[in-house]
């Protein structure tokens, strides 16, 4: 029976070890977002979409200042695929694209100066397009997630403000009789502000009109 040379065994072992190291290295460097996430890569050599104009420092001439342009973040956005991320030199973060909800509860006065309360719920999410993801990443990527996070706070502020304004032009009877119209008008009024945050509204429901 022919013996396998010790040199061949060593070479085969070294090749196997090298392959294992390559697999481990590949898994460590290759980042893949979940189906309901966007992978945001920043750092050295990243070429992608710059932050929107609303996030830049604008000078008196209406153009971004040199300092603002230098400090503007540039993101590489990955959805539905993967990318290599260099340790230390680059940073990979994940931005949720899942739908979320915010409970709305606002008190105001109607057209006849009668106090009235409105309860509702807004279902929203980060938009799927690159500009929406960029806007949301610029503002929320490092923010605290969840119901107590900055995103929920801003969404509530937007809808509460528009609800108070619309309530002030209607009577309690109008509000009770036209909940769907109130929801649609509030949703339409919030579109531009939500777009600046990179958010879209899936639905807005008025659950209750309170007449103290």
Automatic annotation (TrEMBL):
Q: Which domain of life is it from?
A: Bacteria
Q: Which residues cross the membrane?
A: 6-26
Task: Please list the residue ranges annotated as the Band domain.
Answer: 77-210
Query: Cellular component per GO?
Result: plasma membrane
Q: Read off the Pfam families from this record.
A: Band_7 (PF01145)
Q: Name one GO biological process term.
A: protein localization to plasma membrane
Report whether Membrane shows up as a keyword of the record.
Answer: yes
Print the keywords alphabetically. Membrane, Transmembrane, Transmembrane helix
| CDD domains from the UniProt entry | SPFH_flotillin
The record's GO molecular-function terms, alphabetically, read: protease binding
Where does it reside? Membrane
Give the matching PANTHER family.
FLOTILLIN-1-RELATED (PTHR13806:SF46), FLOTILLIN-RELATED (PTHR13806)
Q: State the similarity comment.
A: Belongs to the band 7/mec-2 family. Flotillin subfamily.
What protein does this entry describe? Band 7 domain-containing protein
């Amino acid at each position: 029976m022919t013996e396998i040379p010790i040199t061949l065994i060593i070479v085969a072992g070294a090749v196997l070890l090298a392959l294992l190291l390559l697999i481990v290295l590949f898994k460590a460097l290759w980042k893949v977002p979940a189906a309901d996430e966007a992978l945001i890569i920043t750092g050295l050599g990243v070429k992608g979409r710059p932050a929107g104009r609303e996030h830049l420092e604008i000078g008196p001439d209406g153009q971004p200042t040199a300092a603002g342009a230098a400090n503007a973040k540039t993101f590489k956005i990955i959805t539905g695929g993967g990318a290599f991320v260099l340790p230390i030199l680059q940073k990979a973060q994940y931005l949720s694209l899942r739908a979320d909800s915010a409970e709305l509860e606002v008190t105001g006065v109607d057209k006849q100066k009668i106090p009235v309360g409105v309860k509702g719920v807004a279902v929203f999410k980060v938009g799927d397009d690159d500009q929406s993801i960029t806007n949301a990443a610029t503002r929320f990527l490092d923010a605290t997630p969840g119901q107590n996070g900055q995103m929920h706070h801003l969404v509530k502020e937007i809808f509460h403000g528009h609800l108070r304004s619309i309530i002030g032009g209607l009577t309690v009877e109008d509000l009770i009789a036209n909940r769907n119209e109130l929801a649609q008008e509030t949703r339409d009024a919030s579109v531009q502000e939500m777009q600046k945050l990179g958010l879209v509204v899936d639905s807005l429901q008025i659950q209750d009109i309170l007449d103290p």
